[in-house]
């Protein structure tokens, strides 16, 4: 612990700090990863713009002997990952790297100009450490994975969660991209996945495979409900989560279902049409595809 912040030393060069954020319940924090070597650091994500929390985070850096931040990098633009960057940057100046596809969103979340943000290089170096920057869209179009080669640690942003769930929803989220990102984790050499929220994930290959199979099973479930007759996304949410109280997660459950529906439409399995009387989008199995979904 540092002050009220929970911290965890993952190896001699990487610290995980749980920063309180407004994020999806039941989560209440976002991970900040401080990659450090001697007096320099690279900071990955920095959610939460509360001044007192950022001051405690700055104290964590000082206690590690860090005098300068050579770069900030965001796994993606969402405010619970970028909101605190400007406040920490005021204490430790440094360039901010965000994938260009996420620049507009990050500028809004950080109250800055897109011109203040840089496209990340393929590799960020810090002393003897190499951090490979991998563009892996899915949760957002500009989502990044970061691989610390020497320690085989893979930072996966919001593509995996140590607790709670991952959501993928349009317009930012793309389910097929997400499957590819998960396959990439399955094939990686990582010994630990470092998620945007919750504790680190051992056996990332098995965990990402399980996540992908879970999503594919959900997609099959959606297809089967549509085989029983056309439905709206809201009706599918009510059917699929009939026995669960989703609380404030209902809108993201709906968006994840919409991302599955968008993939089924892309695959040519499902079609959609805004139908009377209320012109809500109805989804239905394409006639020529009936019984073909595998
Ligand atoms: Zn996110």
TrEMBL record:
<dbReference type="InterPro" id="IPR050662">
    <property type="entry name" value="Sec-metab_biosynth-thioest"/>
</dbReference>
<dbReference type="InterPro" id="IPR036388">
    <property type="entry name" value="WH-like_DNA-bd_sf"/>
</dbReference>
<dbReference type="Pfam" id="PF00753">
    <property type="entry name" value="Lactamase_B"/>
</dbReference>
<dbReference type="InterPro" id="IPR001279">
    <property type="entry name" value="Metallo-B-lactamas"/>
</dbReference>
<dbReference type="InterPro" id="IPR036866">
    <property type="entry name" value="RibonucZ/Hydroxyglut_hydro"/>
</dbReference>
<protein>
    <submittedName>
        <fullName>MBL fold metallo-hydrolase</fullName>
    </submittedName>
</protein>
């Amino acid at each position: 612990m540092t002050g009220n912040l929970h911290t965890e030393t993952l190896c001699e060069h990487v610290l995980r700090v749980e920063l309180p954020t407004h994020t999806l319940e039941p989560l209440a924090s976002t991970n900040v990863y401080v990659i450090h070597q001697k007096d320099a650091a690279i900071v990955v994500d920095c959610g939460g713009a509360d001044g007192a929390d950022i001051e405690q985070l700055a104290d964590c850096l000082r206690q590690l002997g860090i005098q300068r931040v050579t770069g900030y990098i965001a796994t993606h633009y969402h405010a619970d990952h970028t909101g605190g960057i400007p406040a920490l940057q005021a204490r430790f100046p440094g360039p901010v790297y965000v994938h260009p596809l996420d620049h507009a969103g990050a500028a809004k979340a950080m109250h800055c100009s897109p011109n203040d943000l840089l496209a990340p290089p393929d590799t960020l170096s810090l002393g003897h450490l190499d951090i490979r920057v991998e563009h892996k869209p899915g949760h957002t179009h500009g989502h990044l994975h970061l691989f610390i080669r020497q320690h085989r640690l893979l930072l996966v942003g919001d593509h995996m969660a140590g607790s709670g769930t991952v959501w993928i929803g349009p317009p930012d989220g793309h389910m097929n991209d997400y499957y590819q990102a998960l396959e990439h984790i399955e094939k990686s050499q990582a010994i630990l996945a470092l998620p945007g929220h919750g504790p680190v994930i051992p056996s990332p290959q098995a965990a990402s495979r399980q996540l992908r199979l879970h999503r594919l099973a959900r997609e099959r479930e959606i297809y089967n409900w549509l085989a029983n007759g056309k439905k709206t996304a809201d009706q599918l949410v009510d059917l699929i989560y009939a026995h669960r109280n989703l609380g404030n997660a209902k809108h993201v459950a709906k968006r994840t279902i919409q991302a599955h529906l968008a993939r089924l439409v892309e695959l040519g399995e499902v079609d959609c049409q805004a139908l009377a009387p209320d012109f809500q989008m109805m989804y239905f199995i394409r006639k020529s595809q009936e019984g073909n979904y595998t």
